[in-house]
Each structure stands twice: as structure tokens, then as C-alpha cells.
Amino acid sequence: MPKRLRLTRRFPVAMSEDGYRRLKRFAHDAGLDEGEALSFLFENFDSVTDRDNLTHRLRLFNSELEARKK
User: Fold this and answer.
1) Do the Cβ atoms of 43 and 50 come closer than 8 Å?
2) Is residue 40 in a domain?
3) Would 23 be classed as within a structural domain?
């Protein structure tokens, strides 16, 4: 029997406009709302990410972060 999806945690999140648009598109394509989509992504994080690509993308993001905040 599948585990029941209980959305028990709510927290304020700051997202970039691009990130939020991508989340909304992913959720719509998957037939989920944004909270369900985030739950899916984080519950299945290791199987939906490529570790090498993630490390590279994270390095790029961090190097651009200060400039993006201005």
C-alpha cells in the first residue's frame, strides 16, 4: 500500500522568477500542485539528479549568486 502524501510542513521560500516558472511548468506537466511537485523532487532527489551535473551546476550557481542578488 502506498504511503499517504501528507503535506505537513509549510515554510516561507524565496525563489527566483525563473525557478518559480520552472517549478510551475514541471508541476503542471506532472499534474501536481507546486507543493506536491517539490515533495516529489526532494523525496526522489538522488534518482532525479545526476551527481556530477549537480555539482557542476551548483558551483556555477554559487559563483553567480552575489551578482544576481544586486
Assistant:
1) no
2) yes
3) yes
What confidence tens digit (pLDDT) does each residue in 13-68 have?
899 999 999 999 999 999 999 999 999 999 999 999 999 999 999 999 999 988 88
- Asked if residue 56 is part of any domain, the answer here is yes
Taking a C-beta distance cutoff of 8 angstroms, is the pair 5, 35 a contact? Answer: no
Between CA 10 and CA 60 the distance in angstroms is 29
Residue-number span of the structural domain to which 28 is assigned: 17-69
Residue 8 falls inside a structural domain: no
Amino acid present at 37: A
24 contacts: CB under 8 Å, gap ≥ 6: 34
Nearest to 40 by CA among 2, 5, 13: 5
Q: Which of 46, 28, 36 is nearest to 9 (CA)?
A: 36
